[in-house]
Amino acid sequence: MSRVAETFARLQAAGEKALIPFITAGDPNPGLTVGLMHGLVDGGADIIELGIPFSDPMADGPVIQRASERALAHKVGLRHVLAMVKTFRETNQHTPVVLMGYLNPVHVLGYEAFAQAAAAAGVDGVLTVDCPPEEAEDLTAALVAAGLDPVFLIAPTTPAERVREIARLARGYVYYVSLKGVTGAGNLDIDDVARKIAALREHITVPIGVGFGIRDAETARAISVTADAVVVGSRLVQEVEAATPETAVEQLTRLVATLKAAIR
Amino acid sequence: MSSYDFPDARGRFGAYGGVYVAETLMAALDELNAEYARAKADPAFWQEYHHELKHFVGRPSPIYHAKRWSEQLGGAQIYFKREDLNHTGAHKVNNTIGQALLARRMGKKRVIAETGAGQHGVASATVAARYGMECVVYMGSEDVKRQAPNVFRMKLLGATVVPVESGSKTLKDALNEAMRDWVTNIDSTFYILGTAAGPHPYPMLVRDFQRIIGIEAKEQMQDMLGRQPDMVVACVGGGSNAIGIFHPYVDVDGVRLVGVEAGGDGVDTGRHAAPLSAGKPGVLHGFRSYLMQDEDGQIIETHSVSAGLDYPGVGPEHSLLKDIGRAEYVAINDDEALKAFEDCCHLEGIIPALESSHALAHAAKVAPTMGKDQIILVNLSGRGDKDINTVAGLMGITL
Q1: B394, exposed or middle or buried, with CB in 10 Å at 0-12, 13-18, 19+?
Q2: Which residues in B have their CB inside 8 Å of a CB on A?
Q3: Is the model's pTM score more than 0.95?
Q4: Cα A191 from chain centroid (whole Å)
Q5: Do domains B12-49+92-206 and B54-89+211-394 have the same CATH topology?
Q6: Which residues of chain A have pLDDT under 50?
Q7: Known catalytic membership, residue A239
Q8: Cβ neighbours of residue B336 under 8 Å, at least 6 residues apart?
Q9: Active-site residue (options: A27, A60, A149, A228)
Q10: Contact in structure between A179 and A9 (CB atoms under 8 Å)
Q11: CATH for A3-258?
């Protein structure tokens, strides 16, 4: 069983929902990322989504765009991100790490080489935002062969036949995009999300995480009523942006603890 | 080359193209693909498209013999396909009319567009006014500065121009921002993509709307000269004017197709916008193609005197034409393009766009190596009125 599957099984047995915080690797500087990851776990993170910085983050709102720009100012690339995960794994063997990013940095390394390097570093899953199932065949095969979970997005606009195709390919969990928009947007409709998740469960057997636009404990709690996992990204990245390097870990840990308490 | 039939059903031009977008956009692209398939088979759609091209744009655009310049160069005869004479001043409007007609069929009342030099933005604002649609144009804030006349034109036409401050603040960032708008307003909005790039079906439909350039040229060359050119030359940023004139010639033997990329300070300096000359295949903006990127797969900032060529990728069909050897791609540096710009003004009485000046420069470079009975057809894709501030600045003149 993969580390992601184990985590969901353990939480389900305890009647808990998973909290999946997202931060961008290398933001605000590469030296802080591993510390922030441990801080997320201390606050109650069940799985960590670690963003791979990219020069052209088309699906992201301004908050995560700026995080990418800060990381890229330090020249943080995918190979650095894998090195960070490897360091994190030296002292944490239980919290799954899912890389989230855009396809080109993965494409340039080569799918098989990337999958093997990611598995060796201790990565558990990979979500490439701009690689829908139609284009994902080779990458998915490489990930699965290396023992990694390919994580896919499902959107409010995804029709049923595509949901079935995604169900066929997805491992670990699927990520339901809670709104039509970019990350960190403010037009989340909780009732609509609840209806969509109920419909998804007809086809999807892996756990369903929900993200995009979850900004506070109250929304996280409401979403967790129907979802198996709550993903919070922009709100945390904003906290990192506002903090000083000295206070970032502590502030992030406190915020994650609030969110985890709300969905427990 | 009769077997040339691209893209396939998945939007692939060989190893290039495809649909690399976030899940939220997939349904909208499927819907667009289905609607275009219906429109393509509907004679009334094309009838209206051609009616608009004739009465609103002023097509067919003429073919012109650049006699004095050809004589001075002493080699091949250079002819221009005069897309600069189109309404709005460039080839861009051929495509915006086609896409706006599609938007209307789909019941979309709001259109968005990205723009670099501003020509596609102006062409989008123009058709939005013509068909009574709301129009929002995304433009890198650097380009807003260097293309001020076009920004004002768009505003006059009723469009909202949104300066994009992220990334390198140029065309690629405008495209990112247009995609973000589209994903947010997907139910109400039609994205009028300006070049033969982006996710399937855009590279196909932009090409299909720009093919009119090559279709006319073939007929006009036959009528005027009783033969086809030895070489067709066009500038390549995203590559829409080039694919428009190339495509009808792909299966014509004996016609060399040459795409001219922006060499900026020189391809060997790294400061350029020539992915086919010096890039590697990668994935950006929804498609796979040659791309300017570093070893981490980050997109490299481009450099060109011409805002319309300042793009790190290139339409996927050009990548295919390069790989199969049907088209050749070369680069022309800023200073060579500016020299051609001046020569075209002085010798032919035509102020060309800086983008098109790259194609002119290459024609002027190779003409002397060819025979006087040979013919080069250059796609003069746009007029240079929009560039006079840039050129004046380079001459040290403040207007």
Answers
A1: middle
A2: 10, 18-28, 166-167, 172-173, 176, 179-180, 183-187, 280, 282-286, 288, 291, 293, 295-299
A3: yes
A4: 23
A5: yes
A6: none
A7: no
A8: B263, B358, B361, B365
A9: A60
A10: no
A11: 3.20.20.70
